Amino acid sequence: MAAITLIEAVNAAMAYELEHDKDVVLFGEDVGKNGGVFRATDGLQKKYGTDRVIDSPLAESMIAGLAVGMAAQGMKPIAEMQFMGFIFPAVDQIFCHAARMRHRTRGRLTLPMVIRAPYGGGIHAPEHHSESTEALFAHIPGLKVVIPSNPSRAYGLMLAAIRDPDPVIFLEPKRVYRIVKHEVEDNGEEYPLEACFVDREGSDITLISWGAMMHETLQAAEKLAAEGIDAEVIDVATISPIDMDTILESVQKTGRVCIVQEAPKSGSIGSEIAAEIAEKAILSLLAPIGRVSGYDTVMPYYRLEKQYMPTVDRILDEARKIMEYK
Amino acid sequence: MTTTTVASFEIKYHQYLDPQGKPTQELPAFAKDMDKMRQLYRDMALLRAFDAKAYALQRTGKMGTYPASLGQEAIGIGYGDAMTAEDVLIPYYRSTGAMLKHGITMEEILLYWGGDESGSNYSVAKEDFPICVPIANQIIHASGVAKAIQMRGQKRAVATEIGEGGTSEGDFYEGINVAGIWNLGVVFMVNNNQWAISVPTEIQTACETYAQKAIAAGIEGVQVDGNDIIAVKQVAEYAFEKARNGGGPTLIEAITYRLCDHTTADDASRYDDPKVKEEAWKNEPMVRLRKYLEANKAWSDKDEEAMKAEIAKEVDAAVKAYEEAPKPGPELMFDHLYAELPELTKPQREAAIKLAEKARGAK
């Protein structure tokens, strides 16, 4: 067992599947010799060869469309989008074909494919490198959208994504690629998709988040504990399809909810979770649902990104307000 | 200033039969096999009869929007005839000829255009893709399928087809570009029928040919008379053999004329010049092949009559099967969304089924 970062866990999971499943093939821009611009695929081409870890031409629609073609033949492609901000040319292929092939052929052709993309703000990156557009993908039936928040989850969820018989959009919160290390045993054990993780049990308020914001949310929970507020913290992890049962169970216990996300507020995953809670557990609520999010603005270039991103203090302010509600 | 030429290109045009059905050069061996040529003539006649029936079904409210292949039959039938069962077809919406040749049934095609995805659950061509509706996405799929075939060391080719207008899309270039780099076994057919709905070819490109777009991808590009089935088949056979044997991709521009509307939802009389169309009718592929067969004493009016009666029976049987196919229930919206329906969606499935049952009960 070794202590590894989130990005090393992504690498380890892909290596495990390359080792154990001959149908797994990895491609994208700079993923081969260079090992990816973040080093997510570091060393994989050297170990598994240029036939299975492939530097592709620079064209995102092509990368996604090739994955569709290869997966339809029973291969298990893992395609990398270098940054989520550049995924949009591939949206045509992902929405019109990856998400629909099983349905369109009544199950005759299925697409066991993964599209990976680093996403989110906080690393002082150039323009178009920091957005959180996960809700666009979560809105499309036929896709699964998975976001790991820490190294062990990245390892287990990536294994599950590769083995899943349907297309998975695997979004990696790049701000936390190297922020913490976990002891992760490289044993090929996957985590379930479509399952939330309860990272902290509590009885007073439910804090719900995913991806990089889980770190601020867990810090906020510790500070709330010092104030005598016992917060339960849920990592949604698979944002589509969402495991609402775990969320509703928690809400029924605490009666108070705060949703934390980096993405803009309107039409978001937070909106969807709040709507589901309103539909199915409104009578358990002791206070209005609170939301801490990015603003409904263009993701600013890096001089303003700290002011855009939710902070521990913003979460604390909202959680206290929810706790004070009578 | 002194310069050197670092690259240059030429595009070859292939034709064996002129519009009068007269050979323009020594014919390939298959063209002298009159049984084979009669079969190709019949295949084109079947496609034309099927199209006419599909149009009638749409006009009488029995089927949805349908794109016919009138005047372009030699393309799909020609390259479809060059395919083997092991090859993979990635069709677009005007690939009916190649689909029929590759074992996709008339009933399945009607079911698809009749609004039921079950029509894409092919009974024979199990690896072929469903019809690609968004323009040019299929070009990349073909390269992806060919990459898988290449990685597994199989000797199979992939065929895909696109209209000339579709070659303006980014996906077209991205797909042929990677096929060139990776030496993938794809045959890219360009149906240059002069029209992208109402937009003529001169508004689509400044290139002299569509075939030369292959040059920018570093692959072979050729042009054929798309109304000459001998030329289409001969060039396609070369391209498929090359694709199956590690020779890489070929782009074939087949020049023809769309004698029909874009689809049943279109009215070409709004933009097409009737005089040009009248001229185009003189060039169409069936008349040409019939003249060739007649010149070789391989076809008569009696043969024509007998063939038409036979074909009508086949098409009618397919229409009957289409009309009698079970109507899809609402569960089909849910049952092939994922391998397993998400918990959150299960109540929606139950609700949709209940609503349908209620509606049936109310009748």
UniProtKB/TrEMBL annotation, chain A:
Bilayer-spanning residue ranges: none
InterPro entries (alphabetical): THDP-binding (IPR029061), Transketo_C/PFOR_II (IPR009014), Transketolase-like_Pyr-bd (IPR005475), Transketolase_C (IPR033248)
GO-annotated molecular function: oxidoreductase activity
Keywords, sorted A to Z: Oxidoreductase, Thiamine pyrophosphate
Cited SMART domains: Transket_pyr (SM00861)
Name of this protein: Alpha-ketoacid dehydrogenase subunit beta
SUPFAM superfamilies hit by this protein: Thiamin diphosphate-binding fold (THDP-binding), TK C-terminal domain-like
Cofactor: thiamine diphosphate
EC top class, as a word: oxidoreductase
A Pfam short name: Transketolase_C
Domain of life where this protein originates: Bacteria
Species per Swiss-Prot/TrEMBL record: Kangiella aquimarina
